[in-house]
Write a structure and sequence with these properties.
Elements (H helix, E strand, L loop, with lengths): L11 H4 L1 H9 L7 E5 L8 E7 L2 E7 L5 E5 L13 E3 L3 E2 L6 E2 L5 E3 L18 E7 L2 E5 L7 H4 L3 H8 L6 E11 L3 H8 L5 H4 L1 H6 L7 E5 L2 E6 L21 E6 L3 E6 L3 E11 L2 E11 L5 H29 L21 H15 L1
Helix pairs in contact: 5-8
Length: 360
């Protein structure tokens, strides 16, 4: 009797520039993408520019307190409006001084009154779908996209329970880490712990108990759960009166963002930013109350970078080199019906999403 094996994706999914271009034109434009943190736009007129799917955009807080995102392009003759970050009373195009309200509506421009029939109220910046998710700003270039709660059911409420002080958090540290691999190689590595015991001794013995590690889908979220090792050996104090303070958990939001909560309700994020088919930059974020300095989190971040992060960079870059070998034949995934740490059922789920992304 023949048995159907679930095999890894073909190497072209990770090495072909045409696949990456298809993802840029499709997947990146119709999924919820990380833009920034609300602390970057605390006051009316605060803004920051960013890029998604080869598009320049910017977020800005209006006088009504609403955070909006717009394509970073003037509706006159297409000059980009802002760069970097800052604060402004109105958005003024540097080319011809067309001026927009913080809501995106055209306010004024030199000699516009001389143009018969020009109605300023009909001209406005092109707005982008925006949601604030526990203090993080997400955007979706698809105006008809379902809300984040439908994409990631339950994730917001679960994270809020693990990080009850989320509203007071600000970025303490954002670090860019370059990896010479396809973004999907890095995300696959993040999304299974089959490799953890062999390759991450600090994480597997000092943070989590690999025997209890499991990953399950919740909509387009991969939910990581595990028991922790002996917390008496932790290098920092944990307030056990706070719910979930003695747990580690993670939520990966397809396609490029993950929230991790370490024991002590310490929030850490990953944000993958693809450069091309063979390179990705991973933004690692750590957060504290008010963004204030924390020796505990600084030590934890340094330990994380010198162990798990460095170990993973070696792994994913080796995989990318192997994918370009003519000797590679996609092998079977280890999909255990019982799931658990030594199963790649989460990779099977990811591969379904990855195929869907380029076949749509």
């Amino acid at each position: 009797m023949s048995v159907h094996l679930t095999r890894s994706l073909e190497a072209d999914f990770y090495t072909d520039p045409a696949v990456f271009k298809a993802e840029q034109a499709g997947l990146f434009c119709r999924t919820w993408q990380f833009a920034g943190h609300v602390s970057q736009v605390e006051n009316p007129g605060d803004y920051f520019a960013f890029e998604i799917a080869d598009e320049s955009l910017f977020c800005i807080r209006g006088r009504d307190g609403v955070i909006r995102a717009f394509y970073n392009v003037c509706q006159h003759r297409a000059h980009q409006l802002v760069s970097g970050e800052g604060t402004t009373r109105v958005v003024v195009c540097p080319y011809h001084a067309w001026t927009y309200e913080l809501t995106g509506r055209l306010r004024a421009g030199p000699n516009l009154n001389a143009v018969p029939g020009l109605d300023k109220s009909q001209i406005r910046l092109t707005e982008v779908r925006t949601e604030v998710f526990l203090g993080f700003v997400f955007v979706n270039l698809d105006p008809d996209a379902a809300p984040m709660e439908e994409w990631f059911p339950g994730a917001r409420a679960e994270l809020e329970a693990f990080v009850p002080n989320w509203a007071g958090l600000k970025p303490f540290e954002w670090v860019e880490i370059e990896e010479a691999c396809n973004w999907k190689v890095s995300i696959e590595n993040y999304s299974e712990c089959y490799h953890c015991s062999l390759n991450h001794p600090t994480f597997a013995t000092g943070v989590v108990n690999p025997d209890t590690y499991d990953i399950q889908p919740q909509g387009y979220c991969l939910r990581h759960t595990t028991e922790c090792q002996n917390l008496d050996a932790m290098t920092y104090e944990i307030d056990s009166t706070i719910p979930h303070s003695r747990e580690y958990s993670s939520w990966f939001l397809w396609p490029m963002v993950s929230f991790q909560v370490y024991p002590g309700n310490i929030l850490n994020t990953y944000h993958w930013r693809p450069v091309d088919e063979g390179h990705v930059v991973v933004w690692r974020g750590w957060y504290t109350a008010g963004g204030e300095d924390s020796e505990v989190i600084r030590r934890l971040a340094v330990q994380d970078r010198s162990t798990t992060v460095e170990e993973d960079i070696y792994l994913v870059e080796s995989v990318q080199r192997g994918l370009k070998s003519r000797g590679y034949v996609p092998g079977p995934l280890v999909v255990d019906p019982g799931c658990g740490v030594n199963s790649e059922h989460s990779i099977k789920v990811l591969h379904g999403w990855m195929r869907e992304a380029v076949e749509r």
